[in-house]
Amino acid sequence: MERLLGLKLGNLRLDVPFFQASLSGYSDYAMRTLARRFGCPFALTDVMLAKSVAHPQVLAKACFRPGPDEHPVGAQILGKTPATMAKAARDLVAAGYDAIDLNFACPAPKVLRRGRGGALLNCPDTVIEILKAVRDSVPCPVLMKLRIGTNRTAQAQENFWEIVTRSLEHGVDAFVIHGRTVAERFRGKADWDALAAVKARFPHATVIGSGDIFDPAAAVELLKRTGLDGFVVARGAIGNPWIFRDLRCLWEGRPMPPPPDLAEQRLIMLEHLDRVLQGYPEKVGISYFRKFMMYYSRRHPQRKQVVVSLIGAKTRAEVEAGIDTWYNGEARHA
Model-level pTM? Predict the structure, then answer.
C-alpha cells in the first residue's frame, strides 16, 4: 500500500491520520498510555466538566494532569459558559495539555438537561462565543467535537452548518464529527456520507470522522472513500489497544500481525489492572476495571465463562488469579 500522509491539528503533526477519542468513563491515563504503546500518536482525556476544572483543587490531583510520557495529549471540556470554558482551557494548558477539545456532541440525557454537550448544537451563537473565548485564551490547537445535528429536522441541519461555517471563521483548528445526531445517540449506523459532505463543502478544513470504527481495514477504506482528513477510534479501543497496531500496519503498508494470543492478552490485562490500581484504592479500582474486563473478554473463545468468573472477583488477588486461570494459553477453544 502506498505510504499516505498523517494528520495536522493546528501546530501538532501526527504521523498517521487517526487517534484515540475522548471516552466518557474510560479514557484515563492507563488507557491512553496503552493506546500509545500500540501506535496511537495522540489521545484525548475523558471529558471534564469545565466548572470543575476551573476549581484550583481539581488540577492539583494527579489523575487530572497529563503524564510525562504521553505527549501530545489533549483535554476535552464540557460546559456552556464562555468565561468558564476559557478559564478551564487556560488552566489545562498550564497543567501541560497540548490541545483543547470542546464537547458540543455528548448525547447523555443528564448533560442535555443542563444545556451542555449536544444541546448546544441548537445554540450557534453560544457555541461561537465559547470558541472565541477559548481561542483567545490558549495558544494550542482548539478542536471541536460535534454531531451532525440535534436531530434530522431542517432547523437542526441549518444550525449545524452555521456552527461549522462560523467556527472556521473564528479559528477552529479541527472538527471531530460523529456521524449521528444527538437524538440518535448510538443507534443505527454512523452517517459518514454526511461527514464527507462537510469536507466537500469546506475542503481546506480539517474534518475528522467519528462513529463505528471497529474494523481496521474497513476504517482505512472508509477514510479513503470519504476524503476526510482522519478519524478517531472510540468504543473500538476499549479493551483493544491492538486496534492501533493494526491500523498503523495497514496505513504504513506493513504486514498485519496475528491477533494477540491468550498469553499476550494476559500480560496487557495485568498491566492495565496495575496501572488502574496505581491511581485508585483497591476496591474502587477493581470496580472501575470491571468494565474493561468485559471488553477484553470479547476475544476469549470462552467469553461467557470468563465474564462470569472475572466480574465476580472483588480483590486484586482474585482478579489476577482469574486472569491467570483463563489466559494461561491452555484454555479450551469453544
Answer: 0.94
